[in-house]
């Protein structure tokens, strides 16, 4: 395999908003939906759509609970999600190295 092989980039993660979600969750997990929305500068609907895609890939797990009487949605980075994130970063690093 050539070092320059962009076809192995994980398309689920590579979208700008999903990339931001994965990056944030790799440092703070679980994250409340409201906090995550603010960090990635997204609307409720847009973030929900992208979280669904990450959830389908088993990269995140959504937990709906209550804090007192208020609903609370927590987003967890899964073990598979962390492994995919690390693989993504390694793939990008390989591409950067090939460009030198």
Description:
- With 100 residues, this protein is an alpha+beta fold.
- Helix content is 55%, strand content 18%.
- The chain is elongated and about 55 Å long.
- The model has no long low-confidence stretch (mean pLDDT 91).
- Strands 1-3-2 form a three-stranded antiparallel β-sheet.
- The two termini are 17 Å apart.
- It has helices spanning 11-14, 16-25, 33-40, 44-56, 79-98, and strands at 31-32, 60-67, 70-77.
- Strand 2 (60-67) and strand 3 (70-77) form a beta hairpin.
Q: What is the terminal-to-terminal distance?
A: 17 Å
Helix content: 55-70%
Average pLDDT level: 91
Biggest sheet features:
3 strands, antiparallel
* Low-confidence residue ranges: none
Shape: elongated
Structural class: alpha+beta
Q: What is the total tally of β strands?
A: 3
Question: Which descriptors apply to this entry?
Answer:
3-stranded antiparallel sheet; 5 helices; alpha+beta; elongated; 100 residues
